[in-house]
Design goal:
51% of the residues lie in helices and 11% in strands. It is of the alpha/beta class and 401 residues long. The C terminus is likely disordered. Helix 4 links the parallel strand 3 and strand 4. The longest helix is centred in the middle third of the chain and has 43 residues. The chain is elongated, with a radius of gyration of 26 Å. It folds into two domains: 129 residues, Response regulator (Rossmann fold, 3-Layer(aba) Sandwich), CATH 3.40.50.2300; 162 residues, Hypothetical protein af1432, CATH 1.10.3210.10. It is built from 17 helices and twelve strands.
């Protein structure tokens, strides 16, 4: 690993000895990108402002909080950051506490030679890159696996999964505008949010999406699908939180329990609110409202939405389903298009639902049905590049509207 590569990773060193900190800055100037903090409290304040440090090195004995206490909290603020302990106390008990409570990667004994510390920092940077690359690989693998699963489910039950690609798009935009990090779990929750709908009859789903009145039994089916989805997904490793977010997608915003100005700290509560807002917004658009009308109707709902989340809808890009669709040959379909009509085969079975984004599976499916002369050679589609509302929706959110 070259010096320039090492310098791109930030290192935070925490100690109450200002002379030691000055010496470390001097020794490693130009080698590592080092930030220093005089004590645990200052170190935590730095991590609260910026949790992108690759490595944190902390002295063990400091006033107010010791190194184990500091590194334990640091691990909560920056889970991917690799933690190193620097101490003049080499006893076994200290080492055990440091490893067990602070999740320490390396243990350095004072006085620490420059070469030893340089080796430890470089090893910690490599460990951090390994952690990040493995997490990114896992996230990409999960996303790809879920995408394949939802593509298959969309072909098996198109009525239930016609909205998921748009919901995912809205969830991602909302999360980005809220400044959230690691939004992959929210995206997966959006992609799998309708899994429980596989238990809901197609005609009931159609009535619900159209805004028609439902029977008590049908209402119960719609209300139960998030919990069914949770039960189907919660046994899959790494999808436990995703399943919990899906289960929370119908939970109303409680302005008594929640802070209107600040977002919930709990990812499941926050994710449920984001998912609920995106799903209901998409449903309003699907029922023929433009973005302005959809936001207005959501704002007037008695069960309400978190104001900060609802406000983000003012600036997201929305596929305008009221724009006139175009007719294209099935062989001309591409993955930038959105299906603009329900497609049925001759026996009346729905094979692709209105609102589904075209993908390779849908293209192959339609070509196969066309070869069997089960469907017409041309279909209607929306082109998102032409039907995307780029302008901001100007809407004042207030209790009086």
């Amino acid at each position: 690993m070259t010096m320039s590569q090492l310098y791109s990773d930030k290192v935070l060193i925490v100690d109450d000895d200002t002379n030691l900190l000055a010496a470390i800055r001097r020794q490693f100037r130009g080698t590592f990108n080092i930030t220093t903090a005089e004590g645990g409290r200052e170190g935590l304040n730095i991590l609260k402002e910026d949790n992108s440090f690759s490595v944190v090195i902390s002295d063990m004995k400091m006033p107010e909080m010791n190194g184990i206490q500091f590194l334990t909290i640091a691990g909560q603020l920056a889970p991917d950051t690799v933690r190193v302990m620097l101490t003049g106390n080499a006893d076994l008990q200290t080492a055990m506490h440091a490893v067990n409570e602070g999740n320490i990667f390396r243990f350095l004994i004072k006085p620490c030679h420059k070469d030893t510390m340089e080796w430890a920092i470089e090893a910690a940077i490599k460990q951090h890159r390994l952690i990040v690359s493995e997490r990114e690989l896992l996230e990409k693998t999960l996303k790809s696996s879920v995408q394949v699963l939802t593509d298959i489910l969309a072909m098996v039950n198109p009525a239930a999964f016609s909205h998921t690609s748009r919901i995912r798009n809205y969830v991602r935009q909302i999360a980005e505008r809220l400044g959230l990090e690691n939004i992959w779990q929210l995206e997966l929750a959006a992609m799998l949010s309708q899994v429980g709908c596989i238990t809901v009859p197609a005609d009931t789903l159609a009535k619900f999406e159209a805004g028609a009145e439902l029977t008590p039994s049908e209402k119960n089916m719609i209300c139960e699908h998030p919990q069914i989805g949770k039960k189907l997904l919660e046994q899959i490793p790494r999808l436990e939180k995703v399943a919990a977010i899906i289960a929370a997608q119908q939970n109303p915003y409680d302005c008594v329990e929640n802070d209107e100005k600040n977002l919930p700290d709990d990812l499941i509560v926050l994710g449920g609110q984001i998912l609920r807002t995106a799903i209901d917004f998409d449903l309003m658009i699907f029922r023929g409202n433009d973005a302005f009308q959809a936001i207005g109707k959501l704002n007037k709902r008695a069960d309400g939405y978190h104001p900060a989340i609802l406000k983000t809808l003012q600036s997201i890009n929305v596929i305008d389903l009221t724009v006139k669709a175009k007719t294209v040959d099935i062989h001309e379909l591409n993955e930038k298009m959105v299906i603009a009509e329900d497609i049925h085969v001759r026996n009346g079975m729905l094979v692709v639902a209105e609102g589904q984004h075209v993908n390779s599976s849908i293209k192959t499916l339609l070509k196969n049905y066309l070869e069997r002369k089960e469907i017409a050679p041309q279909i209607r589609v929306w082109l998102p590049d032409e039907s995307m509302e780029k302008q901001e929706v100007v809407w004042e959110l207030s209790e009086n509207k």
